[in-house]
């Protein structure tokens, strides 16, 4: 419980720092992932083309452990992992405050489900996935993490 509480608080701190820097987007990554080549450029192009001027999204997901269509909108209970999630900096103070308030309730990914539910947020998916989860250790005692992106492009040549 201590590790996952620290994880939530650290995430809130990083979000606060990034929001203050004036960046266009905040991308949340974890340390146990593999990334597709050129993912920052590809992500930015997709966001700028389809979502930069729109306010009807809460987060953009570039990691999908199940088959989805590009641009598909998912309900909060479909949220899975905090890998390759993009947020607007204007939303970061609300997210960080929520994490600080609820840091010891649940693992970080569950906190995001609670946050999305509370604020009626929507997840917009990008396919194919630009990230693959490599980690196997869960913060929940006795649980092994086994999810993998079904459409990860990082292993394909020429991408």
UniProtKB/TrEMBL annotation:
Query: Domain named MGAT4 conserved region: which ranges?
Result: 1-151
Instruction: Cite the GO molecular-function annotations of the record.
Output: acetylglucosaminyltransferase activity
By its UniProt entry, which InterPro entries does this protein fall under? Glyco_transf_54, MGAT4
A GO BP term here is: protein N-linked glycosylation
This protein is called MGAT4 conserved region domain-containing protein
Write down the species: Eutreptiella gymnastica
Q: What is the lineage of its organism?
A: Eukaryota, Discoba, Euglenozoa, Euglenida, Spirocuta
């Amino acid at each position: 419980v201590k590790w996952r509480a620290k994880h939530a608080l650290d995430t809130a701190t990083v979000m606060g720092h990034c929001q203050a820097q004036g960046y266009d987007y905040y991308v949340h990554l974890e340390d146990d992932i593999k990334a597709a080549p050129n993912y920052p450029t590809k992500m930015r192009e997709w966001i700028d083309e389809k979502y930069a001027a729109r306010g009807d999204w809460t987060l953009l997901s570039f990691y999908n452990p199940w088959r989805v269509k590009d641009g598909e909108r998912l309900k909060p209970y479909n949220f899975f992992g905090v890998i390759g999630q993009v947020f607007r900096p204007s939303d970061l103070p609300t997210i960080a405050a929520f994490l600080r308030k609820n840091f010891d309730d649940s693992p970080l990914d569950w906190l995001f489900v609670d946050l999305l539910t509370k604020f009626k947020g929507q997840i917009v998916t990008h396919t194919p996935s630009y990230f693959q989860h490599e980690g196997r250790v869960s913060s929940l005692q006795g649980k092994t993490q086994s999810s993998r992106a079904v459409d990860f492009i990082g292993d394909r040549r020429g991408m």
